[in-house]
Amino acid sequence: MLTVVGMGPGSPALMTAAAQAAVAEADVLAGNARHLAQFPEFAGETFALGANIAALLAWVTARQAQRVVVLASGDPLLYGIGTRLLAHFGQAQVQIIPGVSAVHYLCAKVGIDMNGIWLTSSHGREADFNEIVRQPKVAMVTDLHCGPREIARELVARGAGDRWLVIGENLTLENERIHWQRARNVQGQYEMNVVVILNER
Question: Which of 10, 39, 143, 187 has its CA 20 to 30 A from that of 151?
Answer without folding.
Answer: 10
